Amino acid sequence: MQNMNLYYDFSGQKFGYPLSLSMNGFSRSIFSRQSSLEISYVLKGEYEAVTTQFSYTLKERDMIVIAPYDIHMLHKKEPDDDGIILTIHIDFSRMTDAMAGNVRTGFSTAVCTETRNRDSYIQFRNKIGELAAELMTESNDLYHMNVIMMEILQIAASKQAFSVDDLPLHTDYHENYMKAIKYIDSHFKENLTLSEIARQLSFSTSYTSKLMKKYTGIPFVKYLAYVRVRASLETLLEGRESIEKIAFDCGMPSSKAYTTVFRELYGIVPSAYRKQFQKNVKYSAGKENQKMVLDDEQKKLLLHLLEGTEEILYENEQLSIRKDGEDFILKIEKGNVQIDTVQEGGILLRISKER
C-alpha cells in the first residue's frame, strides 16, 4: 500500500544526477539490491528493516544506512498505518570511479538512532536537514547540493578511508566495459541481447557478461531493464502516452515487466507515480510545467530536521565539542585532560596523549 497524500520525489536520475530524495508511505515487501547508497529516515510510523545480517524496527526519527549492493527489505511494521519515510539515494553508477572510490568495500549497513551510532546519526540528520532546506527554498543550487552529497558520503564512509592512491588505473578491461555501456545507452530501445553487444564489440559473450557483472554488480538483463525504465521517466511524466506504449517504446517486453522493474526502482507503480507527479506540478502563467515542490504538509514533516539536534563545533579523533541548545557537550576518546579556569570565567582544556 502507498500513502500518496504526502508523496514527493526529487529524482536526480531524470537529469543524470546521482542524488535523489523521496517521501512516501511505501511498504516494500520484497528484497532489493542496488548500486546506490541508501539512507532511509522514518518521518512517521514504524518500519521494519531486514538485511542478511539483522532485522530492526525503525521508529519515528530513526534511520538506516544501506551500503551499496546489500540485500535488504524495508516495510511498514503495521501494513495499514499511515507511515511516511524519507529516502535518499546516491547512485554511484552516475559517478566515475575516481569520484566514488571502491563502493563495494567503502561502506557498511548500519542503524543510526539517538542512542545507537549517535555521532553518525547527528551528522546524517544535520546533512539531511541541509538538503531538505535546499529543496524547501526551491533554489536547488547544484554546487551546494554537490557539497551536501559528498559530505553524506564522507560520513557514511568515515571508517573506511579511501585514498586517491588506491584508485585503480584505467585498464583495457574498464575501457571495454565503457564501450559496452555506451552501446547499451545508444541501442537500449532495440531487441538487445548480450550476444549482440559482444558481436558488435568483437568480444566473446562470456567476457561481456563478466564485464557487466564486475562493474554493475547485477546481471545484464536487469541492468538493461533499469536503463530502459529510467530513460522512460520523462515520457511517463508528460502524461500523454499509455503505460503500454511507454513500455514498448523504451524496449520492455510488456507493460507488466515494465511495472515490475519500475516498482523495484522507485517503490511505486508507474501509473501512481505519474498521477502524483501531475498532482504536484504547478503551472506558470504561460501554462509551462514547473518542478515538483514540497507542500505545507510535507514541509511540516521535515521541519524538525531544519532545527537540527546538535551543532558540531570541533571534532577530531580524540575530542568532539558540540553545542545542544545552551549546553556544550565534550566527548573525549583518548588522552589525559587537564581543566583550568581562566580570568574571564571560562574554562581551558589541555589534552595530552596517553603514553
Global shape: globular
- How far the N terminus sits from the C terminus, by CA atoms, comes to 59 Å
Beta-strand portion reads 15-25%
Q: How many strands appear in the DSSP assignment?
A: 15
How helical, in percent, are the residues?
25-40%
Biggest sheet statistics = 6 strands, antiparallel
Helical segment count: 12
**C-alpha Rg (nearest Å):** 23 Å
Class from helix and strand fractions: alpha+beta
What strand order characterises the main sheet? 1-2-9-4-7-10
Outline the fold blueprint:
Layout: E1 8-11, E2 19-24, E3 28-32, E4 36-44, E5 47-51, E6 55-58, E7 63-66, E8 72-76, E9 84-91, H1 97-100, E10 110-112, H2 118-136, H3 142-156, H4 172-187, H5 194-200, H6 205-216, H7 220-231, H8 233-238, H9 243-249, H10 255-266, H11 270-280, H12 296-307, E11 311-315, E12 319-324, E13 327-332, E14 336-341, E15 347-352
Antiparallel strand pairs: 1-2, 2-9, 3-8, 4-7, 4-9, 5-6, 5-8, 7-10, 11-12, 12-13, 14-15
Helix pairs in contact: 2-3, 2-12, 4-6, 5-6, 7-10
Descriptive labels:
4-stranded antiparallel β-sheet; 12 helices
Summarize the structure.
The chain is α+β, with helices and mostly antiparallel strands.
Question: In words, what does this structure look like?
Answer:
With 355 residues, the chain is an alpha+beta fold. It is 37% helix and 23% strand. The chain has helices at 97-100, 118-136, 142-156, 172-187, 194-200, 205-216, 220-231, 233-238, 243-249, 255-266, 270-280, 296-307; strands spanning 8-11, 19-24, 28-32, 36-44, 47-51, 55-58, 63-66, 72-76, 84-91, 110-112, 311-315, 319-324, 327-332, 336-341, 347-352. It has a 6-stranded antiparallel β-sheet with strand order 1-2-9-4-7-10. It has a 4-stranded antiparallel β-sheet with strand order 3-8-5-6, with no helix packed on it. Strand 5 (47-51) and strand 6 form a beta hairpin. The longest helix is centred in the middle third of the chain and has 19 residues, at 118-136. Residues 282-287 have low confidence and may be disordered.
